[in-house]
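Hi R.,

As promised, here are both runs. First protein below:
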Amino acid sequence: MATAPTIIPENDPRNPVPFPLPRAAGPDQVPSHVPEALIRSTNMLFNPEFLADPYAYFSGMHEKLPPIFYDVGRIGNAWQLTKHEDAFFALRHGEYFSSASSTPFPRDPSDYFYFLPIEIDPPMHRKYRAIVDPLVNPQAVLKWEERIRKLSNDLIDSVIEKGECEFTEDFARPLPVCVFLDLMGLPQDMRDQFVTWVVQLLKTFDPTQMIGTMKVIGDYLKSAIEDKRKNPDEGMISRIVHAAPNGEPLSDKEIFGFVFFVFIAGIDTVYATLNNIWYWLARNPDRRHEMMADPDNINAQVEELLRVFSVTFSGRILKQDLELRGVQMKAGDRITSILPACNYDPDVFPEPRKVDFHRPRKPILAFAGGVHSCMGAHLARLEIKIGLQEWLKRIPEFSVKPGAEIKYPPSAVVGPEPLPLVW
């Protein structure tokens, strides 16, 4: 009897053919099924209104734009979701919304690899997520509390007597990145180089420059992977390298795509959140005092600040036709959930721009959601919580340095930089 051929799903790391085709961009690439009335060209990440105050912009989207619209721009045409309910649905319904090739990073079609597990749909996604979950689940991250608290105080020690600091470089980046490097099993003395690489990758929209930076990062990670093969340790890279789910070791390409994704995902997002929070704290001394006067409410404070200062977006591709909020979308359409705008949805969060530390608990989308919720969410919450506790204990009074011009650079990770503070 003939053996049935193995059918490899399109969204499978063993499939050498990337799915879907490269993203379309520009007004001449709008599909015929998109109503003209829903087409916009916000050019959001480069829009002067957005760059002046992105969170005012996110909030204003609910008044100025349809809840679902089709954005035409230089970094790719896509449907945009701004309602909490719609994004919540998209993040939790993989039967409609695929994560395949949903990240913006270019790869060689002749040597294609998927970023794991973010670009893999269920049920295969669980295979990869289960490898690293034991290192980042709520119980596991608690072992980092002492390290995070000591590191926070060491960083404060280095600046407190100066009466000023550049918060990004002196606290916001080193705090989460140092913890992340320990978690990964990577050398601390390369911290600044790693940050430079990731910033270069995430803050450029030039495919040629992205490809060059990805090669530099990839070459380093290949050497790190080989080192972990020979010298296993307790870090995440070693765990990925030596994983064998269901007794089957991962392929070289699976390992590379997994390590690459975790590397870039772990270095740039928490610092932006910290920058946003401290910028707000520096301008709102009364709210700082409120937080310090109610230390037992720290978890709710962190959650509300994460809602107000979400920093990322979530991309998907439709696997089948779908009507959402009366809008007809077709298989192959790209979808972006603008998570910060969704967290300002007035139908879910009344007075959404108000920072309310006693707001009734509702699910926020700061870390996306569903099976692809951020792997590092629990660790990020702990870092923010401890960072706030230790900083406000030792530097309770601070402000933005007089004359400083605070800017938000165009980036898929939203945060002000630099952030000079004085006390």
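And here is the second one, sequence first, then its structure tokens:
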Amino acid sequence: MKYYEFLLPFYALIKAKTEKKAKVMYKKHVWEGGGDKWHERSRDYAMVKFAMAHDSKKTEVAIMLTHFLDDNCDVLLTDSQTFE
């Protein structure tokens, strides 16, 4: 799996097998106009961003990891879930 971070117009962290699939998921779940600025990110980078966006006092680490590693979960973060 690869990880794609979309920055504009709305933030999203998406897990997909290909760049094309990531763009389709962005259009489907985040913004139908598509993402203008994005980068492929490493698994470690994506995992840290994902973990930082969750409250460790409310969510167990095992649950977060299960969600992150689940191949059926393609949109990991969106604008409303991210800390700036």
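A quick note on the second one: The longest helix spans residues 19-29. Let me know what you think.

Best,
J.
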